[in-house]
Amino acid sequence: MAPPRSACRALLPALALALLGLAAAAGPRQTPPLELAQELAEELWSAGLPGDLPELEPECRSLLGAFAEGSAALTGCLGRRARPVRLCQGCHGHYRRLLAQYGSIARAVGNSSESHNCAKSILTSDRLQIVVTLSEFFNETWEAANCANCLKNNSEGLSNSTEEFLDLFNKSLTCFEHNLQGQGIDLSPNNYTEVCKNCNETYTKLNDLYNHLQRMNRQGGESAHSAHLCIDVEDAMNITRKLWSRTFNCSLPCSDTVPVIAVSSFILFLPIVFYLSSFLHSKQKKRILILPKRIQSNANLVNIQEKYS
Amino acid sequence: MSLELTPSSFLRIGQLSNVDLNEDIHELETEVPRQRPNEIPHNEKLLSLKYESLDYDNSENQLFLEEERRINHAAFRTVEIKRWVICAMIGILTGLVACFIDIVVENLAGLKYRVVKDNIDKFTAKGGLSFSLLLWATLNASVVMVGSLIVAFIEPVAAGSGIPQIKCYLNGVKIPHVVRLKTLVIKVCGVILSVVGGLAVGKEGPMIHSGSVIAAGISQGRSTSLKRDFKIFEYFRRDTEKRDFVSAGAAAGVSAAFGAPVGGVLFSLEEGASFWNQFLTWRIFFASMISTFTLNSVLSVYHGNAWDLSSPGLINFGRFDSEKMGYTIQEIPIFIFMGVVGGILGALFNALNYWLTMFRIRYIHRPCLQVVEAMLVAAVTATVGFVMIYCSRDCQPIQGSSVAYPLQLFCADGEYNSMATAFFNTPEKSVVNLFHDPPGSYNPMTLGMFTLMYFFLACWTYGLTVSAGVFIPSLLIGAAWGRLFGISLSYLTRGSIWADPGKYALMGAAAQLGGIVRMTLSLTVIMMEATGNVTYGFPIMLVLMTAKIVGDYFVEGLYDMHIQLQSVPFLHWEAPVTSHSLTAREVMSTPVTCLRRIERVGTVVDILSDTSSNHNGFPVVESNPDTTQVAGLRGLILRSQLIVLLKHKVFVERANRSLVQRRLKLKDFRDAYPRFPPIQSIHVSQDERECMIDLSEFMNPSPYTVPQEASLPRVFKLFRALGLRHLVVVDNRNEVVGMVTRKDLARYRLGKEGLEELSLAQT
């Protein structure tokens, strides 16, 4: 395996040279860039792929650095706010900044040479394209969380309905806490009735608001992701509902068993009556046989009987 | 008609004949005075006199030949172009009707489910759920009542899926009223109402009937129901052309129902194949494509994404990705096993439905009883659904699921009742949910209960006096047990390789449908096209094959069974295999009522108005009254032609008297088609009775004949392949000795223990 690898190493500078040469040749009209490229290639050649490439211009490098820091910050934010989900509330600033940084990379043009801009050198000059991948990842996460749904249109800060919802949410959590405090920790699951009674109003309000938001949202847009509310709101509601139904066991008990059984057995009984009565009272439909005009029904019969008996 | 003949008229082979039937006869013999017609309860070994054949074979009389000679080459080309135009129109209209049904059903069912859901939500909190149950049952029953009323009282032939009727029509049987505009209207409204009414039915089968009616209507260029004649397409006003267009319409219907144009063509091929040629196939394919495209474009405009074209059929199986839901070769034996299960369950379904249908024919024949029955079924369906939902404790998180009407009931907030996705929904949606919901959406218990209940409900529903199809319920039953099978398989093997239960749901659906309807080629292609995944073709084919083989071992397919129960003289592909010993002499009816070439009007009128013999074709013999012997066969004339002749009073004497009288043209026959007036409505005065009528110009001078010694299979082949209605049996002097019609041939059937003979009956 060793010889091929060394061969590769030897080949690399040549390849870079060739590539640069090609790029320069393909480049438009002016000669300076061509010379520059040749210089660069010579540098490469002599340095034998140094650690720090002189390829990237200082402006681009600073943009890249900013992007790296921004994405680190956003990643940290996302990670920290993963449970309970507070992504949209906490990280929209980071996300917006990162978007701006990415935008400036994509738009930025290096000062020294027009043909050689940062977008090209940072975003598209290698196979991995890590900056693009990172930014795509953030965008997808943001889309999946559907954060746009609970932010204002210019995505600065939370929208009014979201604020209202979170307010109610906090209120009901406070209510839960408040009602649980007086009682000991060793409660059996059945003893949460106090909570159920006292917080019912807040909880119902919260639930209704959530359902209302959902309905509004569904009417608003047809596309698939806008069928969801933003993840913060959804998760908050989920937590509350779980507490309410599972932990406190406040959801509705199965009721009305007797009337339901009575009504359904009455309805199920009807067809039996119907079929019995039509069997007993309805006149059976008779068919009138018509005798066919044939020559020898008997011979016919014999013929077949011989065959099958 | 005397009763001494009776026992011998039943063909009894050993002791296989129905015992009850024999007892009935003996009772009749002892109690009923003689000369009374013989009455028996309805059974499946009867042929009804109600059904007649289509005249697929042209009557090549002089008028016809003259007209054909007048038409030159260019005119024939125009006729050909007209055929294409008609096919395009059939496609477009069928697609539009399908759109209409789909949109109306979606909206009405949505409205109903919203109302019931709000009611249930309200009463869950307050108590009093029995009111919701009553509301649901009443809503269903009243909607179904309307649907059933219009079918039972206005057009009974619109009941059921219509596939058996269309199958018969393509086979060459004229089912009264089957291709009328009124039938179409009732069918479409009836389907909408029965689906909205929550019955275990689908709207796909009736599309085939609807397409056929549209085809029959358009190709005639007029509507007798509306009394409008557009004076176009007059060339196509005969059974031959109409039937070809009806096969195009049936294909267009299948194609609109399942988004399966090729499947539609193959359906027509499978059902009407004996009269088939390449040009017709190509035209039918054209109609199918147009139909699915029309449906697709209109529905995508309706759903708001105009250029998307994502809904090619009424039912959309959704996308089956090869990556996620692909199958491996090891799974094929499992699929075959599912085919066996499908065959057995299908046979059980058919057997139960057979008894039910027999009971219905015998006892529930009054229209008001039929309406009551349909209402009861609707109420019970709602009740069963409600009780199942009520008792189910299978709650699933609402997040990330695509349930249309999530019912919470006693589930925790943010969860929905999983049983409700299956019951509280239109069957089409439930099928798609079963195919595509992620693994774990259904509890095995839920699925098991659902399968069991729905199986009986669907079986009970099919055959009611509502217009509704059996495709979707079958698919739903199959999908439910298929999914259950898939879940238990991955549970048993603890492996993740066969993780997705969706494909098992699909195979189960195919197996169940195949086990019930026993279609082969067309169903494979329909399923393949509906899934949009060609790689599924092979397992689906295997599953359908197995289901058919296993099912046929027990009972026959649902449609064939219903055709038989309706006492339709249906001709299968070939004569029963053991019928070589029979010859035309034994098969034919004799003596034959013959007419002379120049016949007295009085005789014709008497023969036509004789109620005991409603013959439709009369051999015409040489009019030589002097000789005592029967004269040779000269031609064949139809009842309809005679009636037109009598109506226009084309008598020899009149022709002599007034030479200016217009000569009768082929157009006069066409204008009367297809509803020829009955003989009673034609007034013939006493003087006119003495006139003579010359048939030589109007009769078909070259009717098909067979000698007496021809074997039954040979006669059968000739009859079936040419689509004949009358086949004259002659002796070696070309004298008429008998006549073979459809009923003479359809009498012989291969039963369980050999050749059986059916009896003729008036129904």
UniProtKB/TrEMBL annotation, chain A:
Annotated transmembrane regions: 258-280
Cellular component, GO annotation: cytosol
Keywords: Membrane, Signal, Transmembrane, Transmembrane helix
Entry-linked InterPro entries: Osteopetrosis-assoc_TM_1
Region forming the signal peptide: 1-25
Keyword Transmembrane attributed: yes
Pfam family name, one: OSTMP1
PANTHER family in the cross-refs: OSTEOPETROSIS ASSOCIATED TRANSMEMBRANE PROTEIN 1, OSTEOPETROSIS-ASSOCIATED TRANSMEMBRANE PROTEIN 1
UniProt name for this protein: Osteopetrosis-associated transmembrane protein 1
Source species of the chain: Lonchura striata (white-rumped munia)
Gene: OSTM1
Automatic annotation (TrEMBL), chain B:
InterPro entries: CBS_dom (IPR000644), CBS_dom_sf (IPR046342), CIC-7 (IPR002249), Cl-channel/antiporter (IPR051280), Cl-channel_core (IPR014743), ClC (IPR001807)
Compartmental location: Membrane
Gene3D superfamilies xref list: CBS-domain, Clc chloride channel
Main location: membrane
A molecular function (GO) term: chloride channel activity
Membrane topology value: Multi-pass membrane protein
Keyword Membrane: yes
Keyword Manganese in record: no
A Pfam family this chain is assigned to: Voltage_CLC
Keywords attached to this entry: CBS domain, Chloride, Ion transport, Membrane, Repeat, Transmembrane, Transmembrane helix, Transport
Domain CBS: start-end pairs: 699-757
Annotated transmembrane regions: 84-105, 133-154, 184-202, 245-268, 280-302, 332-356, 445-464, 470-492, 504-528, 534-555
SUPFAM superfamilies, per the entry: CBS-domain pair, Clc chloride channel
Any GO CC annotation of this UniProt entry: lysosomal membrane
Family: Belongs to the chloride channel (TC 2.A.49) family.
Name of the protein in its database record: Chloride channel protein
